[in-house]
Amino acid sequence: MRTDDDSWDINTSVGSTALFVAAARALGGRAADALACDPFAELFVSAAGGEWADLLDGRVRDHPLLTPDFGIPFQQHQLARTRYFDEYLRVAVAGGIRQVVVLAAGLDARAYRLPWLEGCTVYELDRPQVLDFKRETLADAGRSPIADRREVAVDLRSDWPKALRSSGFDADRPAAWLIEGLLIYLTPTAQDELFAAVDELSASGSRVAIEQMDPLPADAAEALTAGGDAGSEWLRLIYNEPRDEATAWFDARGWRGDRVYLPEYIRSLGGTPAGAEGRQQSLINLVTVVR
Which residues pair with 101 in a beta bridge? Predict the structure, then answer.
């Protein structure tokens, strides 16, 4: 169960979800028709070792990420959102933005793999243990960042705006913000506080890309709890509560935004939503707002 002052590293609690997501990107990206490909995901999963490395090597057959009812739709979800955020950054940089802020960066390796980030400064905010694992894994693999990558080792429940500014962030210049795979791990109040900080730090011309999820219906939450598997573990990590919708929140403060639900976005890319036409994916939506 989450608490307001809980802690984690790359292998525990919220931190372990970064490895779960990386494994999904690695597995899903092997398909010839994958919606996106993140070659760095395999590096992270292999470096974690144990069951994670065994999963990639095919030595594990019984794993939630391999099941047709959850694992395959989840792989597609991760690749689709990767495609969305990658394209969002391409458009932002083409529009002249040179500051990128990744909140709860986890195992995001865009500063290493997106060629259009050359000449940009990328601020990655996360707990130090997560950032250490990422940096050391990629250094051991001989990988160097394309962008000017700056680690901001901070818990987002603390004064992260101060830490961001101290790392060189200039609030008088436009920025592109990434809020991917984060909001469900925040209370509704903490989400609004994070949005308010982003709003305050964003100059004219800034952009924010957001992944959000509608609350799980009660019957779906009960089914996950009763399952006693990865789904029930995940449910204990999130705050499955009603909260402000991001597009409306930013629109009310002078931003212009739009959103698309994940199945619709997958279809726009020529794909077919997995899992009973995107049943599991239908709660996920992707948002971009521009100031």
Answer: 123, 177
